[in-house]
Amino acid sequence: MASERQDVDKEFEEWKEEHGKKYKSKEEEAKRKKIWLESRTRVIEHNKKYDSGESTYECGMNHMSDLEMHEVCCGGMRSCREEKNDS
Predict the structure, then answer these.
(1) Which InterPro entries does the entry link to (predicted)?
(2) Interatomic CA distance for residues 41 and 23, integer angstroms
């Protein structure tokens, strides 16, 4: 079990590096990792359906895998207010 957690921790670190992710605090990183883990679980579960022929497409993790749905809808901004304030 500890080895599996270490593997997932390493996967998260590699994903952060691949996508240039840096967080302002330990709390922010913990929040983003939780979201990332939820995304990862959804991807794994969906791809099981793909592998068994229950779905016609495969999913993967991407640069938005640590974002909440409303952040994804705002074009990847942490908040829609940030985008509006930058204008």
Answers:
(1) Papain-like_cys_pep_sf, Prot_inhib_I29
(2) 22
